[in-house]
Amino acid sequence: MSKILDLIDKLYETHSLSLDEYEYLITHKCDEATEKLRTYAVANRRKFYSNHVFVRGLIEVSNICKNDCYYCGIRKSNENCDRYRLSKEEILSCCNEGYELGFRTFVLQGGEDGTFTDTWLCDLISAIKNRYPDCAITLSLGERTKESYQKLYNSGANRYLLRHETADELHYSQLHPSNLTLENRIKCLRDLKEIGFQVGCGFMVGSPYQSVKNIAQDLKFIEEFSPHMCGIGPFIPHKDTIFKNEKAGDAQLCCYLLSIIRLIKPNILLPATTALGTVKNDGRERGILSGANVIMPNLSPLSVRKKYALYDNKISTGDESAQSLQNLKKSMHAIGYEVVVDRGDINTISKE
Ligand code: 5AD
């Protein structure tokens, strides 16, 4: 018992463990370790972000994708997916609604849709920046060339989310067709960082074929890459994929890993994801209580929310944005946290 508690102290003090030690933390997960990790994680988060929760307005710009990732509901070979792409006007109107509600970050997320040329995106990014100069723009549009990322950055985009999905080559090949490689994924992440984006990586908890060692590798990768943001959420099967009969990832393990990541990088921007809220009713609240400090409510038009189905039973597909934000504020307040009107950039200065 004391070995795991000692390892948690070591991680809290040095922000680093060996691969074997990360593996030990996961295989020996117990109530006492969970509690200790959570206490340290919440202390770390408080130092940099007090009890504030940053919100990001998620705009799901397109479910058209040229990729065929085995786990994903909007993969190109899914013929049951009702495809859509928002127009610039529709996206700007989502931003308008979001701004009024107090969002100061917009996340444009979508499949790798070929019509998203650099020119089209740069024009959109400039338009958003012009109208809302006090807002941050986060992109989550998949793999592109470094030249393309540079143009998007120059137009005013600030952050980029690109989950690495898994840090193990073999596991990567079990989740993706062979034209997609871990090597290129990592190259994209490095390019984004070099350009100056605030960068987010991340992975699914409990994805098919994932071993404990794989999770340890993910943690080591996060430690070494040191991203500004990290998105982790349970894998959830989608009925039109080859993984339809696989079981969903575990919410408790996901929260445990959120705490570990908060110890690896105390000031990281760490969302309690929609997927976590989907596998467990109070998943997002539990995520916040485990050390997360970001929530990404949906700002997409109601008419497309169900169509942007990466997995089955995604939450809040029916609520108006205003209503769901109101509910979120209440549920955060109830656990002692406060949703703030703020861009929510990474904080590098500890308040203590
Ligand atoms: N379950 C959970 N998360 C998923 N994602 C894609 N498909 C699923 C699924 N079935 C995640 C991937 C991707 C992010 C946008 O959504 O990690 O990077």
Report what the structure shows:
By secondary structure, the chain is α/β, with parallel strands linked by helices. The protein has a single domain (2-340), classed as TIM Barrel, CATH 3.20.20. The chain is 45% helix and 12% strand. It has helices at 2-14, 19-27, 31-49, 88-101, 118-131, 146-154, 169-175, 182-195, 212-225, 251-264, 274-279, 283-289, 302-305, 321-334, and strands spanning 52-55, 57-62, 105-110, 136-140, 159-161, 198-205, 229-234, 294-295, 338-340. Strands 2-3-4-5-6-7 form a 6-stranded parallel β-sheet. Strand 6, helix 9 (212-225) and strand 7 form a beta-alpha-beta unit. The mean pLDDT is 97. Bound molecules: 5'-deoxyadenosine.
Write the layout of secondary structure elements.
Elements: H1 2-14, H2 19-27, H3 31-49, E1 52-55, E2 57-62, H4 88-101, E3 105-110, H5 118-131, E4 136-140, H6 146-154, E5 159-161, H7 169-175, H8 182-195, E6 198-205, H9 212-225, E7 229-234, H10 251-264, H11 274-279, H12 283-289, E8 294-295, H13 302-305, H14 321-334, E9 338-340
Parallel strand pairs: 1-8, 1-9, 2-3, 3-4, 4-5, 5-6, 6-7
5'-deoxyadenosine binds next to loops.
What distance separates the N and C termini? 31 Å
Query: Ligands in the structure?
Result: 5'-deoxyadenosine
The neighbouring-strand order within the major sheet is 2-3-4-5-6-7
Largest sheet: 6 strands, parallel
Binned strand content: 5-15%
Percent helix: 40-55%
Q: Tally the helices: what do you get?
A: 14
- Gyration radius, in Å: 19 Å
Determine the mean pLDDT.
97
> From the 3D coordinates, which CATH architecture would you assign?
Alpha-Beta Barrel
Helix vs. strand class: alpha/beta
CATH superfamily: Aldolase class I
Number of strands: 9
CATH topology: TIM Barrel
Gross morphology is globular
pLDDT < 50 stretches: none
CATH hierarchy, class: Alpha Beta
Kindly give the count of domains. 1
Q: Write the H/E string, N to C.
A: HHHEEHEHEHEHHEHEHHHEHHE
